Fold these 2 entries.
Entry 1:
Amino acid sequence: MMVTRQVRSAVVIGYMLSIAWIRRNLLSLVWLFATPFSILFIITVTTRGQAFVQGVIGSLLLVLITVGTGLAGDGAWYRLEVKLLDYFIASPVHQIGFLLGIVLAGLFFTTPALVILVPLLLYLGLPLTSLPLALLAVGMVWLFSSAIGYTVSTYVRNLRNGWQSGLALSVIVGILPPSFYPAELLPANILWLAYLLPTTHAVLLLRVLMGQTIALQGWSPLLGWVALAGLLLAALVVTSRAARWRQA
């Protein structure tokens, strides 16, 4: 009963913070396109299409990572500016229900990009039978970045710092790892650092699912799935223990 109530609350919060807003402002659907598709365009032109597949994978992940880490700013906005968090703290909604709600709200904003990028991956060679595994991999990265973004938002004291923190996190999680470039280009000592981020494993798994051969020291598809699950679990544990709720 408690779980059902929190899930229902999350859906209502997600609708209220996304669909209800989108119906009044359709331009809100555009902003997530800007950076990922700009990078994809530059990569496609400069490599004459040779890195197009890698660029599409990177764009898909960056869209989801951006909306996840963007919770650092969104969460701060709800807490500091509109005082919406005070309402939910005084209600039966648990922190997990609120977190799921704003995570779902962010996902709704990614719909136009996903409608373009997911079919594009299928066209470029991702088997339809492998689509559930591909969505699972990118979904785990999305949840990881959302958990980190939300946790940061509970410590932000200034709204501007919230947006800045979200942008910084999106660069760290979405652009620095080998998402828009092959992991094979990284030296061995830096590659081990890349393994500490789930983005690296998700990209490599998507490449494997699309039929590419990955020959990297210390990595295998099994290790990739284990690392994804472990990093996501660690992020959720950190969020449950470190994210501040009542203090808001």
Note: The radius of gyration is 18 Å.
Entry 2:
Amino acid sequence: MIFGIWPGAVAADLVSLQPLDCPPEDTGKTLAALRQLQGTTAEFYVRAYRHFGEGARPAPGAGPTPRWPGLYAGEGRMIDLVACYQSTAPDPRGFADFVRQSVRDVAAWGGGKVQVGEELNMPAPLDGGSPGCFEAAGAAVAAALDERDRHGAPVLIGVNAAGMPDPAFWNHLTSAIGPRNTGRLDYIGLDAFPDVFQPLPHEKLPAAVTFLLRRLRAVITEAGVPQATPIHVTETGWPTDDRRAESTQAHVLTAVAAAALASDAGVQAYEWFGLRDGNTSAAWTARFGVLRDDYAPKPAFTAIQRIIADQTR
């Protein structure tokens, strides 16, 4: 199992992507926290996002994050770069070139993975609201695989979706990618936030996570993804606010991770969203971090540090 986290460096609301006044990132403190979480594990993903196009629904807060991913690479840390498709008009060729550059950049940072598109099953401001997103994803996956193979780059290529799997969506996406390249994908990603957008009794978290992962495996298999293709949990988290206690965040993150790690669905990577709050005084939509905005740890920081360390032994 390879763990990872998004550093949480963006001056925006994490749901609407609208701008938000946030304390600036301290890259030295971010790096120190990443090292603490990684501990002695040999490999660790640092998730990053970059955007192609101005956005189907322009959001000034949706810039590259972190701005310089390479600062956090090395010592076993690999960059998980998400190439988001935010074009206002269909542009498969432009997106393919953008993704080729992303593969080259990740290779230059020492390797990792490139995710083609972000949540194409979700409307704007996510990639599913951008015209021609499926055709662009198909062209970009082909370009990413070609670029990786031509350079022998140590870069995995994958796609993802959010929430409960929809067979119609996965059939559409794999048709756009094509059978051959669907079979060559290195992983299928899942963004899942149990008890965040839809309330869920916490005693039901383990069963809900197990069902979600098994359902994803069944749906993607029916859509043509080989049974051996790993699943990566690419985003998961639980925010805090005046009604969402920091101690509860630690409990939820622990319970969800335990269920995912114990599942039989073929999960090989697990990444949290995210490291640091954008603004600890703002609404919950800016408070997914396991650190507060001043880098003080919440109980969840120690909780996921323990999860990673236990899996390393």
Note: The helical segments are 27-38, 92-108, 133-151, 167-177, 179-184, 205-222, 246-262, 299-312.
